[in-house]
Amino acid sequence: MSTAGLISMFLSLCFVIGLVSWCYYRVLTAETPPPEETEHFHSA
User: Fold this and answer.
1) Per-residue DSSP letter, 37
2) What is the pLDDT of residue 36?
3) Is 19 left (phi over 0), alpha (psi -120 to 50) or beta?
4) What is the predicted pLDDT for the residue at 44?
5) Phi/psi-derived region of residue 41, left when phi > 0, alpha when psi is between -120 and 50, beta in every other case
6) Model pTM?
7) Which residues have CB under 8 Å from 9's CB, separation 6+?
8) Residue 27 to residues 12, 16, 20, 24, 36: CA-CA distances in angstroms?
C-alpha cells in the first residue's frame, strides 16, 4: 500500500474512533430525564 493510502486509512480510523468515543461519552454521561417525562412510556 502506498504512503497516501496508509495516511488515508489512519485518518479514517481516527475519525471513526473519535466519533464513536464522543457518542458513547454523550450517551453514558447524559442525565436521567425527570420522572414526569418518562411516566407515560408503556414499554416492557
Assistant:
1) H
2) 75
3) alpha
4) 57
5) beta
6) 0.63
7) 1
8) 23, 17, 11, 5, 20
